[in-house]
Amino acid sequence: MAPPRPWPDSVEGLTRLKKVYTVTTLSNGNVALLKDMAKNAGLPWDLVLSAELVRHYKPDPEAYLMVPDLLGLSPKR
Length: 77
Hints:
Shape: globular
Order of helices and strands: HEHEH
Largest sheet: 2 strands, parallel
Oligomer: single chain
Strand content: 5-15%
């Protein structure tokens, strides 16, 4: 079975955003899965973040609060 393909405009859109912003994902999927998905689909992510890193899964707030902490930012509540 062939790996899933991204929406036709995804890679182009993410590439444009990457010129100004940090492009990352936050998923309940594990890091290895997300890495493989990015490679197979050509997704230009700067970071691959997974809720597995904090062992708290969406919709648990800890999964979301991990992101600004790892990026050295303050969360806005």
